[in-house]
Specification:
84 residues; alpha+beta; two-stranded antiparallel sheet; 2 helices; 7% strand
Length: 84
């Protein structure tokens, strides 16, 4: 599956001057490209990745574009509470 799967499925804007502009394409901006390159280099050693949405103070879990819970949801949530 592509890392850009469901990248532009809503919640962001295609207007370059908008605060929620998602960029021209996946990893088109220098900051996101640098992060992609970094995570690609550590992927084989990564066991758990936690992303905290700084603006809304949300914990972002994989496949956040849908409201459906995925098979490992309870495990992710359990691991999160162990970390905090």
């Amino acid at each position: 599956m592509s890392l850009c799967y469901f990248l532009i499925a809503g919640g962001s804007s295609d207007l370059p001057c908008d605060d929620t502009y998602h960029g021209a394409s996946g990893f088109s901006e220098p900051e996101t490209k640098a992060m992609s390159n970094f995570f690609t280099t550590i992927a084989s050693r990564t066991v758990f990745f936690l992303s905290i949405h700084s603006y809304g103070q949300y914990v972002l879990l994989p496949y956040g574009y849908a409201n459906d819970r995925y098979a490992d949801y309870e495990e992710y949530v359990k691991d999160f509470y162990i970390l905090v």
